[in-house]
Amino acid sequence: NHYLFNIIDAGGVRLVDGPYNCSGRVEVYYAGQWGTVCDDNWDLLDAKVVCRALGCGAAQKALDQAHFGGGKGEIWLDDVECSGNEESLLSCSSDGLGSHNCGHFEDAGVICEGQSVRIVDGPNHCSGRVEVYHDGSWGTVCDDNWGFLDAQVVCRELSCGPATEAPHQAYFGEGSGSILLDDVACMGSEGSLLECNSGGIGNHNCGHDEDASVTCMMDDGPLIRLVDGPDQCSGRVEVYYAGQWGTVCDDDWDVSDADVVCRQLSCGWAMDAPGQAWFGMGVGIPILLDNIACVGTEGTLFDCPSEAIGQHNCMHPEDASVVCSDSTSRVRLVNGTNNCSGRVEVFHFGQWGTVCDDWWDLRDAQVVCRELGCGEAQEAFRSAEFGEGSDSISLDDLACSGSEDSLLQCPHSGLGNHNCVHYEDAGVTCTGKITV
């Protein structure tokens, strides 16, 4: 009784409780909450789909029996059978959402190759002994020739800011596994420690009393944040430099740039890359980056080509923003006078689609306004008041009570099921106004 699911986009998956962003217990998002995946039939092909959807490279291991601890709440998937080419775990064959015969001690996990370096046994996640992942296990790095340029690559790879020290002689304690790297000689610009010159994986003449370490400047997390959005995975992009936070100009800003931000913040991937101060203007802070041109695979926004830090021809009404796949909000308003009015669109099947105005009323609009942090609903518009959409129509026959947290929690005819055309696109205006 297996069948295919395309319920939400590939961003509806995350990894939890692993040692780094690209490993952990697999969880999927459905019906407004995260739930786990049962390990029945779980294998490397299934893990491959998860790793690719999260931008974490190839799958290294598919783990069972709650290797990263048991989750809480729902178990959403069981008997998952992917071919390995699917864009989303929910596109794979399974027993159906919510159908399972498992307990959380069977929660599935993965280890992806996307992040093959970690810092351990220090006072925080940005200071400690350096370890690399190879052939299924973690090993240390010998301190022969270990220096500041090597430490700089590690700190940048782990989104920990600039390096401040490169300690030798097992400064943060000795490791217990293999010694995997020796005579590391980074230029300082490499994207990963494993791209640097070395004696080769496993070749060394060291003992663990020579394990290399790093201390990075930014002990509290990445040098980037999202501000004034409805949750931690959407908002205005701000970066930290020379002791202060500043905004990013929207010149050339696109989804490839936003992808880097979302991945850096462990927020999945980019659903939208709005410009024009969509989540409000930065106040009293500088504009630090302009003309960013990311490929989309960079580790941090600072690795992307751009104008020199602080060089720009912008003003704060051009501040850039992102909406990431791990944002709790799957709704946006477009073509309005500000981001709290406009045509209602929801994210579905990897794209934004409109909402049909059948049954559309103030209770539905109230849910949209609250979900977007836009205050109360003023008016629920019909007949494409804010212009017609051009892509799919995602929702029809909405019947919200008005108390739901998200439009997708309301009764409706099913994602993608409708009998409408775009001149019936629904819209709202809310009391709030985030942008100026």
UniProtKB/TrEMBL annotation:
Assigned GO CC terms: membrane
Domain SRCR intervals: 13-113, 117-217, 224-325, 331-431
Disulphide bonds in the chain: C38-C102, C51-C112, C82-C92, C142-C206, C155-C216, C186-C196, C294-C304, C356-C420, C369-C430, C400-C410
Subunit structure: Interacts with LGALS1 and laminin.
Keyword Glycoprotein on entry: yes
Job description of the protein: Binds to extracellular matrix proteins. Binds to pathogen-associated molecular patterns (PAMPs) present on the cell walls of Gram-positive and Gram-negative bacteria and fungi, behaving as a pattern recognition receptor (PRR). Induces bacterial and fungal aggregation and subsequent inhibition of PAMP-induced cytokine release. Does not possess intrinsic bactericidal activity. May play a role in the innate defense and homeostasis of certain epithelial surfaces.
InterPro entries: SRCR, SRCR-like_dom_sf
Matching Pfam families: SRCR
Classification via PROSITE patterns: SRCR_1, SRCR_2
UniProtKB keywords: Disulfide bond, Glycoprotein, Receptor, Repeat, Signal
UniProt name for this protein: Soluble scavenger receptor cysteine-rich domain-containing protein SSC5D
